[in-house]
Amino acid sequence: MAPDIGLGNWLYQRAQRTPQRRALVFEGNSWTYAGLQQRIDRLAAALRAGGVCHGDRVGFLGLNQPAFLETLFAAARLGAVFVPLNFRLAGPELDYIINDAGVHTLVVDAPHRPVIDGIRAQLPCRRYLSADQPAAGWPDMASLLAAHEPLASGEPVAEDEVALIMYTSGTTGLPKGAMLTHGNIWWNNTNGLLTIDLLEDDVSLVVAPLFHIGGLNVTTLVTWQKGGCLVLHRGFDPQRFLEDAAKYRVTTTFAVPAMLLFVSQHPAFASADLSSLR
């Protein structure tokens, strides 16, 4: 039998090898790989209890935050398919994508719950979860994590099984779901490890939206596979970029040219310590 190179398994294996290494920093809080994996496995157990099975679609709508990544990997632990949604879309656009993907469970943060509430009657979702504080009809993730023991073991997946569906912008027609397999992610990470020479002590500053392929797949996932640390920002802010690059001795990042232009035009740029970036 071929080895399981699925998203859910390789992060689990990383957590077994380096449980006490720092994995994630977000708005003053940090998590080790062991702590992160426990949260993922508790969420996976909660998703399973809510009816998510192998091959089901689990969607996420919201700004960058730990819940995005936890939902991605919890779905992978069940052999389910993750569907990241563009938080800039309007209700009718989200209506189309969520129905096209056939999302079973949808996780949404507070700023974006109103748009989903406005189209909820048209959606196929069987369960709705809040990524942060609870609301009417929106059980929150924190309560679910507290109510479930961690998943005992993940579902094995084949290399050619779909791991996530990322939708195109639809500039010349309706958005199309690009089905990315577990093998796609694994070999993309392998290429990254070899071409960028990623190190286990790398600290990657993640500021691009995670629902974009660049934000998720250039440095984010491969840094975790190597055992490095992610410094995650809810959104892009040039001043915070400069501050955290120095504070956390950031070594890698991903940004599009316009974002880098804004950083370079910030008044603090000339005196900023960016010496750790390679």
From the structure above, extract its key features:
278 residues; alpha/beta; five-stranded mixed beta sheet; four-stranded parallel beta sheet; 11 strands; 39% helix; 18% strand
SSE layout:
Blueprint: H1 7-17, E1 22-26, E2 29-32, H2 33-49, E3 57-61, H3 66-77, E4 81-85, H4 91-101, E5 103-108, H5 113-117, E6 127-130, H6 141-147, E7 162-167, E8 177-181, H7 182-195, E9 203-206, H8 213-217, H9 220-226, E10 229-232, H10 238-247, E11 252-254, H11 257-265
Parallel strand pairs: 1-10, 3-4, 3-5, 5-6, 9-10, 9-11
Antiparallel strand pairs: 1-2, 7-8
Helix pairs in contact: 1-2, 1-3, 2-3, 2-6, 7-9, 10-11
Please summarize what this structure is.
By secondary structure, the protein is α/β, with parallel strands linked by helices. It has eleven helices and eleven strands. A five-stranded mixed beta sheet has the order 2-1-10-9-11, sandwiched between helices. Strands 4-3-5-6 form a four-stranded parallel beta sheet, with helices on both faces. Strands 7-8 form a two-stranded antiparallel ribbon.
Task: Please describe what this structure looks like.
By secondary structure, the chain is α/β, with parallel strands linked by helices. 39% of the residues lie in helices and 18% in strands. The protein has helices at 7-17, 33-49, 66-77, 91-101, 113-117, 141-147, 182-195, 213-217, 220-226, 238-247, 257-265; strands at residues 22-26, 29-32, 57-61, 81-85, 103-108, 127-130, 162-167, 177-181, 203-206, 229-232, 252-254.
